[in-house]
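Long-time lurker, first post. I've been practising inverse folding by hand and with some scripts of my own, and I keep getting stuck on stretches where the structure tokens seem ambiguous. Below is the full token string for one chain I'm working on. Before anyone asks, I'm not after the true native sequence, just a reasonable design that respects the backbone. If someone could post their per-position residues I'd love to compare against what I wrote down in my notebook.
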């Protein structure tokens, strides 16, 4: 039933960085840019196996794409859902998901719309619940949060990728890359597969609940 529902839907996967804010964080050995690209490719394979049409915001790991342009890729594809993949840098550990809870302003543009905010929150809740359930016992669950909990979101009112998004969007900080255990998890083949499985479970749950 879930496969039939998802077959007519479009998902945009955004492997974060490099962008106007840089190349992302780096652990002892693993870079955010590489980690998110690996997961994006694995997630794409899993979603396409379910009959979902997938569009990517970039064609190669090191391709530079501004955050506004990333959102515009999803908009142009009329995506049902956009998932933005990132890794965090902090003294903590684990994963978290972020959704816009109010409009913000970037480059003189105000957004996202109330419709996108509502869609992002509804689909974000479904996504995070399934995502966290899949990773239970493997990584710490830091919850579903507002864009306002991020440095850029707090300054602008929403993340840049959210401001320009015309489709429901969630940003996932998959691990804290500066945490040795988190980095080791995402560096291993088993960890990469587990993360991709969890992301796919979350996306399917979000689409089913939309």
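-- Answer (accepted) --
I ran through it position by position. Result:
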């Amino acid at each position: 039933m879930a496969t039939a529902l998802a077959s007519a839907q479009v998902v945009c996967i955004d492997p974060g960085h490099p962008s106007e804010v840089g190349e992302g964080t780096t652990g002892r050995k693993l870079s955010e840019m590489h980690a998110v690209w690996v997961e994006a490719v694995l997630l794409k394979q899993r979603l396409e196996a379910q009959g979902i049409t997938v569009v990517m915001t970039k064609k190669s790991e090191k391709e530079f794409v501004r955050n506004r342009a990333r959102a515009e890729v999803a908009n142009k594809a009329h995506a049902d859902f956009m998932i933005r993949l990132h890794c965090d840098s902090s003294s903590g550990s684990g994963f978290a998901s972020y959704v816009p809870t109010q409009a913000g302003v970037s480059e003189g543009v105000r957004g996202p719309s109330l419709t996108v905010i509502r869609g992002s929150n509804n689909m974000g809740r479904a996504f995070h619940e399934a995502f966290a359930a899949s990773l239970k016992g493997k990584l710490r669950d830091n919850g579903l949060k507002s864009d306002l909990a991020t440095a850029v979101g707090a300054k602008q009112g929403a993340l840049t990728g959210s401001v320009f998004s015309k489709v429901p969007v969630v940003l996932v900080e998959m691990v804290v890359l500066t945490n040795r255990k988190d980095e080791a998890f995402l560096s291993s083949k088993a960890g990469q597969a587990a993360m991709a499985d969890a992301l796919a479970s979350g996306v399917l749950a979000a689409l089913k609940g939309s």
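A couple of notes from the structure itself: The beta strands are 10-15, 53-56, 81-88, 95-99, 104-106, 109-111, 141-146, 169-176. The CA atoms of residues 7 and 189 lie 28 Å apart. Happy to go over any region you disagree with.
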